[in-house]
Design brief:
Blueprint lengths: L1 E6 L9 H8 L5 H9 L3 E3 L2 E2 L11 E6 L15 E5 L3 E6 L16 H8 L23 E7 L2 H12 L4 E9 L6 E5 L2 E4 L2 E7 L8 E9 L3 E8 L6 H8 L23 E9 L6 E5 L4 H11 L1
Parallel strand pairs: 7-14
Antiparallel strand pairs: 1-4, 2-3, 2-4, 5-6, 6-7, 8-13, 8-14, 9-12, 10-11, 12-13, 14-15
Helix pairs in contact: 1-2
Length: 302
């Protein structure tokens, strides 16, 4: 259970409490905040309130985040594409269309279900829903993920992500023909105020986000690129490429309505490198493009 307290400042007065609290943490949706208010987990000056309460200068907002309900995550036998495994870490190539970890209402068929059947020991740092999961990629993004089998390994891998020493390279197909051969997008990402399910480039309640890219091949209306992540924000490559006017092909959330017929964005996490938590040796893995991606490139070439 986590607890926070906010004191309302001058620029915030007369705003709705659900808006103020959801802006406090980009991971909290407004709907989730409204539920916490109704359940009495969010109070004003120690009194229960309503989601539409307009805050006053000096109001003290107490937020108590309840622990997530334990979900019964069942191990499921799956044919996982494992690139590396030892007693500390595991590297797996996730197929397009697979969700990384369970969520309420979606507790089977995820990578975590398969990992739990494959190995009995996974780090518990991220709780029952995300055992061993250090970082994740979107459902429709394919590619390499590192998984921690114990808490020491987990902390080491997370620290490497924070220190930006993990190598992560992605291949993508984007709309439009990028004229220059390489570039860097340095633009902060946060929740989209108009659509809480989406991320956007914004200065409000955002985090630093940096993506480097280089052009691999140009087609008539599309470009094949490689992106290297310096930071790992939610939907980072998808948001950044849209921001500079070259959204990902097939992206249902950030791309144009008329796009290539794909189930989700053409994005593949092809290269992953990190220092082994125990041996301190640098390990690097590369997964080839999935068949659908190769076929798409061939189609574009012709």
């Amino acid at each position: 259970m986590n607890q926070f307290e906010l004191t309302i400042e001058e620029h915030q007065q007369n705003d709705r409490i659900d808006k103020i609290v959801s802006a406090f943490n980009s991971e909290w949706s407004r709907t989730q905040v409204q539920t916490w208010i109704k359940d009495g987990n969010i109070t004003v000056n120690e009194n229960k309130t309503k989601p539409n309460y307009k805050v006053n200068l000096g109001d003290k907002i107490q937020i108590v985040i309840p622990d997530p309900e334990p979900l019964d995550v069942v191990p499921e036998e799956m044919n996982l594409d494992i690139y590396y495994e030892d007693g500390d870490v595991l590297v797996v190539n996730k197929p397009k269309g697979m969700v990384v970890h369970p969520a309420p209402g979606h507790v089977s068929g995820t990578l975590v279900n398969g990992l739990m059947a494959h190995c009995k020991d996974l780090s518990g740092i991220n709780g029952v829903l995300r055992p061993g999961i250090v970082h994740r990629i979107d459902k429709d993004t394919s590619g390499l993920l590192m998984v921690a089998k114990n808490d020491v390994a987990h902390e080491s891998l997370v620290n490497q992500l924070v220190e930006k020493t993990v190598t992560r390279k992605y291949k993508a197909i984007v709309h439009g023909v990028i004229p220059h051969d390489q570039g860097t997008i340095d633009a902060p990402i946060g929740r989209d105020k108009k659509d809480r399910q989406s991320m956007t480039v914004t200065d409000e309640n955002s985090k630093v986000a940096v993506t480097h890219f280089n052009v691999l091949e140009r087609f008539k209306d599309f470009t094949f690129i490689e992106c290297q992540l310096e930071t790992g924000r939610t939907h980072q490559i998808r948001v950044h490429m849209k921001y500079i006017g070259y959204p990902l092909a097939g992206d249902p959330k950030y791309g144009p309505k008329k796009t290539l017929e794909l189930d989700g964005q053409a994005l593949h996490a092809g290269l992953l490198g990190f220092v082994h938590p125990r041996t301190k040796e640098y390990l690097e893995f590369e997964a080839p493009l999935p068949a659908y991606f190769e076929e798409l490139l061939e189609k574009l070439r012709h």
